[in-house]
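Hello again,

I reread your note about wanting to compare the complex against the isolated chains. To keep things tidy I'm splitting this into two emails, and this first one only covers the full assembly. Below are the input lines as submitted, including protein chains and any nucleic acid or small-molecule components. They are followed by the predicted structure of everything together. The single-chain runs will come separately.
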Amino acid sequence: MTQSLFFRFLARVMMPVLILFSLFLLLRGHNEPGGGFVGGLVGAGSIVLMTLAYGAEEVRQRLRIDFLRTMYYGLAVAILAGVIGLVIGVAFQDAYWWTTFIQGIGSIEVSTPLLFDIGVYMVVLCVTSSIVMNMAEEGEREDH
Amino acid sequence: MIVLITALFAPAIAALLLLTPLRKRPFWVALVPGILFIYFLTQVAAELPAQALIPWVPSLGVNLSFQLDGLALLFCLIITGIGTLVLLYASSYFAERDEYARFSVYTLIFMTAMLGIVTSANLILIFVFWEITSLTSYLLIGFHHEDEAARSGARRALIVTGGGGLALMAGFVLLGLVGGSFEIAELLNQRDLIQGHALYIPALLLIFAGAFTKSAQYPFHFWLPGAMAAPTPASTYLHSATMVKAGVFLLARLSGLLNGTPTWEGITLIVGLITFLYGGLIALRQTDLKAILAYSTVSWLGALVAVQSSSSEYAAVAFAVGVLTHALYKAALFLTAGSVDHGVGTRDIRQLGGLMRAMPFTFAGAVIAVISMAGIPPLLGFLAKELLKAASLYENQPDAVLILFPAAAVIGSALTVTVALRFLWDTFIRAAPADADHHPHEVSPRMWIGALALGTLTLVLPLTLPLTLDPLVGGAVDAIRGEHADIHLHLFEGITTPLIMSAISITLGVLLFAARTRVLNLLMRLPTFDTVGVYQWLFYRALPDGAAWMTTQLQNGRLHFYLLVTLGSAISLTAALMLLGQVNLTNEETLSGFDPLSLMVCILLMAGAITGVVVPTRLGAVAILGIEGALLSLLFALFGAPDLAFTQLMIEVVTLVLFVLAFHFLPNTFNMKITRRIQIFDIAFAAAAGLVVTLLILAANANTIGDSISGYYVENADTVGHGHNVVNVILVDFRALDTQGEILVLIIAAIGVTALLRLRPSNQSRGKYLPADPATSLELPVEADVNLEGEQS
Amino acid sequence: MLLIFALTAGVMFACGVYLMLRRSMVRLIIGLSLLTYAVNLLIFAEGDLQRRAAPIIDAVPEDQMADPLPQALILTAIVISFGMLAFSLALAYRASQAAMTDNVDALQRTDRDI
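Full-complex prediction:
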């Protein structure tokens, strides 16, 4: 499952770029094309790339991210976003917005839908990565 | 309002507390219904009805809406009063403290549910509590779950009453549809509309099905004797004093709404009278004390249904007094039966006798209760029987049944007398049979006090009528009939027809008792319709066998067949609907707006799909799939859906990777040998499916119903959703609950993949696995999977 | 344009069904994917099929916007279908291991421990 040096180099370079790009997609998603689903998929793309270049086992050792667990955290974040509405509002998933102004960056809108989208992003990223890595590992096991 | 709701839910809260360390000393629980009883007593003099309303699902008209009126109050007093005595009794009945705690949990939950039924002013709420009583009854009947009789009795009770509950729900929904509300008070305003509506009869029959199963009316009575497997305190409480009265209560509650039609009058009268007489006759045949009492309960429940055939004041009075009286004396007798069982070790009437001396206090309670049951003056039972006869005489019935009800009332009462005398005589008075080997001892005060107190009450109440029963019964009658009436009960009103009828009943009953050996012989030869057999056949033979047959037909293990069945039914149903509805297939949009670029993409898509079918290698097929996805993504981009296009493209990439990874370990057998005939059939089938999809799209566009809701999202995305990307706002705000569900599905998929790929039996167990019981196992010979791994790699 | 969309979805659906009926597990999964494409197209065709701009408020006037609702529906459907596809692949793998065959009609023998 190990690939050429160039491919490995490419994967390592691309990984932070893809992650940044995915975060960019996530954050701008409310107003421009993008959002948690696409962002999560792009983020997972970086993991997929690494898996193809280095093999699942190595990626798992290097990254030390338990995708299954992070996936549950994502779900928890999404549910939390809904519960906030329940606690301060009248119903589950009532949406709330807070605008804060930060020097040098400008005004930032924090909201429960954004939090929910972050949860979606985490779930999609982790689900996709975990599936691909599981498949790759199964292949590696069969090869041995 | 808060007090009322707290009172209703107090038992359930107490049940919760029993799950805490408080369960170590559970004997305080009897205090809870005791306090509630006192609270409800104070309400007799209070201004009624008291109401409480909390919106629950207002959009569906379902509210936590409670109303404490006279009828509810009567039942509340019975529920909490007898509940107190039963919990007290049970504290001594159960030797194990844990058993008592478990019993108390079920009983307290039941208590809240039962209080809920009688105080609910909303039909859906009644249904909810109704089902909770069925469930707690199930748990209590199966209390000794290691006993097969208890399990089958519990299951039977649940199937019958639960099934009835579902019918009841359907009936309520019909009523709600016709009347436009689930609030009983609002439905009452629509009385004429409802009674004239075509759905009145179906709704009525469904509600009857619920009430009759719960109140053990013939032919649904058989679950009640089966329920006697429950511990005696539970039988006393649920299957005599309270839960089985839920059915007759419901009839009384809805009487003002549904009564007054020949259907109501005829069915309640016929079913009630049959049950009344049948229960009395069968009770005589029983030898188990509890079974005797169970059938006699069935009998009296029949009487309570029969009196409701009329909406007269007599009927309402007879009902209210009848409910109270029966609850008092029958609970006393059930407690007695439990004490006898406890003190002697058997409930078989053939083994019992002479307990009078050994168990004096139990005997004292039983004597009063039996006299009351037999309807001998001046006890409350006498008054109840008297009122029953009055109701039977003064109903406005058609001539044909004019004589039927009074005659049945006399005979049924006579049977009750015989049953009561036999219970007392055989258990306590006559000498014990010579071969009986037991050493009876008196039970603890906590166990005999209940029966004695209830018995004494049937003695005291008739002597203090103006003070006690007049306001209580008066309130109940007002609530049933919806108009005020001054009720003055009299124990003795001179020589009236009911009095003469009572005299005949008692004489007849005593005569029957005197000739009991001969009567019993006769009764034993009486053929009865085997309702339990029908039930057994239905639920243990017909249903499982039918299900098994259907399963073997449909689940034959061949995916090809499953696909043909599921897809075949889906497309034929869709096609049939389109044909029957004669839908339009075209409108101006169908052929307009051709766009050369997207036309080309579509043609490529079609060509790709067909190539995917004929391509001979799996890598080729996967490549085609990728191309299809990319083309689709392009199409999305062309039609203003950049989010879709991007997502589709990303998914396509990951999918390709996944396939390539999977090819590492998937067996490479791409082409199966399939006969030409099947191939041609499959092509025709697939073409038909595709055609239906094409037609469906055309039809859906040519036949729009109402306006699209998309406009709402576009207009409100910015103002309400604070976002400019409408698609994203829909996903994370407007329809976020859907998205929540969708990410959950993704997580389940990921767990599934992990489980399938990673979890496997450890190497040690591999190959050693043997089915526990070859006869019941569907396993194939185990040699087949030994070394499976080795062959694969 | 609707007619073309309907035809395309129909052809893709038919090809998907045919592939699923082919006994081979890989074909089954590919067929399933084609089926989901066809169904997504079906949903997409429920919006009005004019080539319009993306539904971004303020960027384009509302009357020149594509219908956002089918897009939202399809977006999640795409991701879900990926989950389903991954699951079917894993299942196919384990099932073929158990039954030692790729023939989906020979899978009665999988009810056992592997």
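For quick reference: Helices of chain A lie at 5-28, 36-54, 56-63, 67-88, 112-143.

B.
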